[in-house]
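Help! Submission page says 'invalid entity' but I think these are all valid:
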Amino acid sequence: MSDAVLASARPSRAREAWRAALLPFASWSGGFAACVLVLVVTVAIFAPWLSPYDPLVNHFDAAGQLRRLEPPSGTHLLGTTYYGLDVLSQLIHGTRIVLIVGITCAVLIALIGTNIGLMAGYYGGRIDTILMRATDLAFGIPFIPFAVVLVALLGPSLWNTIIAISFLMWRSTARVIRSQVLSLRERGFVKAARIAGASDMRILYVHIFPNVLPMALLYVAFDIAWAVLAEASISFLGFGDPHQTSWGQMLYLAYVSGSIRQAWWWTVPPGAALSLFVIAVFLVGREYERLANPRLR
Amino acid sequence: MSGAVLVTDARKTFVASRRLFGGGTPVHAVDGVSFSIAPGRVLGIAGESGSGKSTLANLLVGLELPSGGEIAIGGRPLGRKPNADFRRSVQMVFQDPFGSINPRFTVGRTVEEPLLIHGLGSEAERHARAIAALEEAELRPGAAFMERFPHELSGGQRQRVAIARAIVLRPRLLVADEPVSMLDVSVRAGILRLLNRLVHESEMAMVFITHDLSIVASVCDELAVMYRGRFVEHGPVRAVLQKPRHPYTRALIAAVPVPDPTVPPTPLPAKLMSGGAPVAGGCRFAPRCGSAIAACETVDPVLEEAQPGHRVACIRHREIAQ
Amino acid sequence: MLALDDVSIVYTTRSGPVQAVSGVTLSLPPGGSLGLVGESGCGKSTLALAALALLPAEARLAGGAVRLDGQDLAALPEAELRKLRWTRMAYVPQSAQNALVPVHSLRRQFRDTAAAHGMRSAEADERAAALLRRVELDAAVLDRFPHELSGGMRQRAMIALALLFGPSLLVADEPTTGLDVIVQRQVIDLLRDLRGEDGLALLFISHDIGVVAELCSHVAVLYAGKVMESGPTATVFSEPDHPYTMGLQRAFPDIRHPERSIVSIAGHPPRLSSPPKGCPFAPRCPFVQPVCRDTTPPLVAVSDARAVACHFVDEAAALRERARDPALWDEAA
Ligand SMILES: Nc1ncnc2c1ncn2[C@@H]1O[C@H](COP(=O)(O)OP(=O)(O)OP(=O)(O)O)[C@@H](O)[C@H]1O
Ligand SMILES: Nc1ncnc2c1ncn2[C@@H]1O[C@H](COP(=O)(O)OP(=O)(O)OP(=O)(O)O)[C@@H](O)[C@H]1O
Ligand code: SF4
Ligand SMILES: [Mg+2]
Ligand SMILES: [Mg+2]
């Protein structure tokens, strides 16, 4: 409660943003993780130029034989698949799925979860009860069977996978945002806005929302990791979009072709990339969590 | 009836139950309060925790709707639901200088917000009015504060921003709920003097809520002492402080620590600390009252005029005054 | 019994070191009572924690020594300290009303504390009942939960808990802040009784000079981590020698004199992350002279009981006279 500490000079907006961007680098693991994320994004953007071949083109040797399960070599740096596709190119194109799934799901989850949390926390009473029952329900539904059934019904496509993921994953965001709103709505600035005659929408989106934004963003970050993992699981189970090359899909095909044991070059890269990406998101998220959640300081 | 504020028999009852079946016991947080305040005057309301001060404040600003009685501000009654006119005529200053302004808004945005809500003025006019309000709240130069964020300000400065926000609409009534109790002693006087000046220089009335009786003299013209949802004493501030007539007021005053170690503390009646729940139909203070007699258990005293403008709700106030 | 000798404490924070306490010397005799007063952030709680050797990890005793009965606490192993902390000294932390475990009955909390120091449950129950009676609570509250008690009752229960092992020193950090005046009076009366009847020494922290005046025989006025003035409460408040004490006293309303106007001290305390040169109060002091900004005034004894840290102690009487004028404080800025 000391003024002296709070009154410390504030750097400009730009410098603040720069400091926030550099925050993960405060620790060794955070810095490493941030580098991994930057790498994934760069690769995804420049995938067509970076990948040596089209990921969906079958390769044949001079004799016209399909280059089936070739170990890494000069022409195929990470070898080939059972179907004669270039593993490296598949891996590189897989980053695009990671980004599409991660970002789309995170945006959808954030939209649904944050709004449900805001409404439930702010209005309380009946609305809160109904929305929180719905949240409990979403928590009660086991994710993978739900997603499999939904994709089976709607047909396997990337979009349907994204819908299945977003349809359940908003639950934890909603809970966390609600609990934040519960305490914010008792604050003087919310009361002051009400006294001055601000509408509920104005109070929710102009006054309260900016204050839950850091927490919402943090959850978005974690949601990206969850969504990417979920997509991989669905694809691995064979319910992914057959026309896309995702890391989960690569593992699925390695499995169904029966080569998961011998062709390590086909399974280790997507598996390792997936783990690395998820861990990196969590590590970076954890650094930012300290900002959003003072108790961890 | 003239007056900036006219409150007639205001009541607020909460039913403290979140269970589906079976109602909880109702809490009569405000249990029949009447008063009026003239423009440019300050009514202080004191009382212990839970006596209903904040609930009364919330009724006055339309945050809660009364369960009974009438409230009118500047002649505008608070009907079923406060309308924009009513909203413009009341504003509030809160206790916690840290929670009462939006940490994500600049000072300028905070002060302009009420104008934006009511769609008043052009952007330039709002800007100018916000600066003027800041300067009135003694944040000078006002323009230098517009772009700052709350965390750059001290507690006292934040409270001034909250005051600027409250006066920017030129309300008829300003309700201040413990505005200095979370501030350091060394800056309290400045805020109190500011509030006092703002009211006395304008046509605005103020309700000043506090549990600290030692500061009321420096801001208030009148003082009301609240106990369990009712005013038990109400009169000119000096009269109430120097010649308190209700036993509860006397106890409150005697309990205030005196910053002079050579003065021994006034002893308080032992009954004051123990007291149980009041008997229905009797004086609500009787179980804790050192002056209670048998009749106090059967008569629920109403406010009656002991001196012109000085009302007391105690059947023994005449004996006690002696 | 308790002696703080030239104690300095530094917090390590992300944005650099914070010099929370600098060179504080205080002593509290057995059965004595010492009040620490000052504004928010002046280091009161930090000193209390130092007195109990309970400083958090980010704080460091950067200089000086804390002695309990002549024993340097810094030299004792943690196990030894833990024993001392309950048996010789007791602590009622700031916002102690919320320090009780909400999900346990009071009986459970007394027993847990007792067990942690090898006292049997039966004995703990017996002691608890006696202590609750001592703080004027019914022994039946033992089976109640914290939320079933009022703020004042919780505060008294906390004090009872602190007294479980019969300490001879009680450190109470703002035990009455946030309580109603009547309840506050009850807690003050209780502490005064404990001091008088049971010979408990009391280190009492408050920002309210009225409460300190009612309870403590001696007082130390802190500002920005330094002692500005110390001595017997009666003389410090009747004849303050330090301008900050004068201001604080004038800022404090006195219910007996509603006509007397109170003052505010313009400005705010210095940032302890970059303490200013010279007297810490200089930027707000109405009597400031160039020397104040250059040289830090040492805390000097002005009589056998009183000490003041101001370059102009010798002119204190004249300054007091000038300090009576409220306009003086308003103009300084
Ligand atoms: N929303 C509510 N629901 C139920 N009871 C309430 C509610 N608000 C207040 N009360 C009850 O009404 C009574 C008066 O509360 P109020 O907050 O007005 O007291 P107060 O005088 O402002 O106290 P304090 O000095 O602690 O702020 C209390 O018994 C309180 O528990
Ligand atoms: N854990 C901490 N980390 C860093 N700085 C701290 C920490 N605790 C306290 N400080 C700083 O040390 C100084 C003294 O703090 P302390 O809590 O002792 O003050 P206080 O006098 O007890 O204030 P209050 O009246 O608000 O309780 C303050 O400037 C504070 O910001
Ligand atoms: S009416 Fe009786 S009980 Fe009530 S305050 Fe007066 S003397 Fe006390
Ligand atoms: Mg209140
Ligand atoms: Mg403290």
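Support: the input was valid. A stray whitespace character was the problem, and the output above is from the cleaned input. Chain B has eleven helices and twelve strands.
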